[in-house]
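::Encoded backbone::
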Amino acid sequence: MKILDLPNQTPDWVFNILILLASVILGMVLKWIILRLTSYYRKIEGFSFIKSTVLHLGKPLNFFLPLIFLKIFLPILKFSTEYDQIWSKCIEIALIISLAYIMINLIKVGQDFVISTYNLQKENNLKERKIRTQLQFLRKLFALIIVVLAVSAILFSFEGMRRIGAGLLTGVGVSGIIIGFAAQKSLANLLAGFQIAFTQPLRIDDVLVVEGEWGKVEEITLTYVVVHIWDERRLILPINYFIEKPFQNWTRISAQLLGTVFIYTDYTLPLDELRKEFDRLLGQHKLWDKRVKVIQVTDSKETVMEIRALMSAGNSSDAFDLRCDIREGLITFIQQNYPHCLPKIRAELGDKVIPKS
């Protein structure tokens, strides 16, 4: 009989803390069981839906599962009437937030699947860059929608907010116009983001020349674009910049690119020998993709002739390295075999008559 009366002898605050600890322990135990049941899938190399889901839901479940048990035990908690509704509302809001956290992390599961399917490391990754650009924009958009819905659900869980919301619906047209004028730049950025995601004037990993800088598109958000400059700097531009202003996209259709090297030499250089050396250098270079190979005299100046070597490569990085190597090889060839054909300035000195004193 004393044992049965023990719960009634326990102070209310101690009993509530014990229920809270029990909810946390039960939640952690349930999560441990889930991890044990999925341990095989978490060891699999590569992508697995179960593996990705467990990895991304690990942190959200730390909050969600204890809250579920706390919600179940809520009727037996010992609160005064004035605090009972407060605790119930707090648990309800916490559940909404944790559920939104779970849904946002579930988006990352889909992202893992797309990333594993469309690998940017391929040689010709045009399709992959298209998909990854749309994925990055849609992931942020869906996350924003989930956050907005969660905040709306929390606000409308209060009776007062529901009445206010019903009243505001009558003036939503006027409010929309006012908000549109006030946030027109933000809306312009959002619409520009939609346009870039689906018309794709630029994509993730595209090579751009923008504001006089050469770099790759590293990130596209709802409001700005991050360009990774070749010297490790980051150029951040508003997303509507790429709708309103011109820029160079070296990988818009294909990653393949032509590279040029200009050499300035004396007119006495034998061009046939230079062409043979150019063919030899390109033929043994692993970065040349064997599409284009041309060397021509493109200009004749007062003191030198301009020779342009044109070559092709699979992408912009390979093209840059190929140009540097070919330029160095041609200059070395001229230095070693025809040093007298390097650029020179000619001057003719006439006889100078020295007057007699």
